């Protein structure tokens, strides 16, 4: 959520739209629903099923589907929202905790 907010604050400071800061932040809340929820679902599922891959390789591979979540911004009249959102998606992939569950946690719970 903080990465998304930081990306849209950067958009509000660099984009040439005549809309004010509050209007852009309102748009950002809508984009959080369209982009943020699928991003979280993909990340949670990917981290949950990840168990045999190197962490760095996993994060690089996770970044690709997360960047695809930013595709609704291709329809924007400015490039800043897409650029900053893609950077936020990549940063999110780099910060996702892996492994999500400690080793052997599922076996102990069963």
* Rough outline: elongated
Oligomer: single chain
In DSSP terms (H or I, runs of 4 or more residues), the helix count works out at: 5
Task: Tell me the Rg in angstroms.
Answer: 16 Å
Number of strands: 0
| SSE class | mainly alpha
- Share in helix: over 70%
Q: How far from one another are the termini?
A: 33 Å
* Largest β-sheet summary: none
**Binned strand content:** under 5%
Average pLDDT works out at 84
Low-confidence runs (pLDDT<50, min 5 residues)?
Answer: none
In terms of topology, how is this protein built?
Elements: H1 2-14, H2 21-49, H3 55-68, H4 80-95, H5 105-109
Quick structural gist:
With 110 residues, this protein is mostly helical. It contains 5 helices and no strands. The protein is elongated.
Please, could you describe this protein's structure?
With 110 residues, this protein is mainly alpha-helical. The longest helix is centred in the N-terminal third of the chain and has 29 residues.
Please name the defining characteristics of this protein:
70% helix; mainly alpha; 110 residues; 5 helices
């Amino acid at each position: 959520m903080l990465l998304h907010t930081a990306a849209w604050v950067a958009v509000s400071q660099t984009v040439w739209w005549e809309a004010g800061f509050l209007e852009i932040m309102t748009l950002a809340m809508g984009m959080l629903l369209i982009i943020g929820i699928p991003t979280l679902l993909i990340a949670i599922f990917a981290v949950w099923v990840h168990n045999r891959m190197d962490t760095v390789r996993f994060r690089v591979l996770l970044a690709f589907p997360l960047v695809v979540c930013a595709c609704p911004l291709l329809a924007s009249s400015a490039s800043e929202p897409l650029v900053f959102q893609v950077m936020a998606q990549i940063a999110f992939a780099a910060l996702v905790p892996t492994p999500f569950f400690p080793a052997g946690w599922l076996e102990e719970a069963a």
